[in-house]
Please model this.
Amino acid sequence: MNEKEAKDDLTPEEVTISTRAEKKQIEERLAIGPHIVYETVRREGEEELQRTASSLAWSALAAVLSMGFSFIAEGLLMAHLPDQPCGH
Model:
């Protein structure tokens, strides 16, 4: 069996994992406890608080624009698409 045939027999998750080290990292991440998750989130929050005001303002503007445009896009789709699929 060649390498391509061997890859065809693998699940999508197994194809993306190429080394034992990667598999071990995934297994370790599945086994982390709530204290580790809390500490990770806390540290990321501390890093965010160290950002400059202008950096936070640009980030907020980007978030507002992306949320606003997603609502506009949803409204446009609802206005222009039929209410029910055609049963022809």
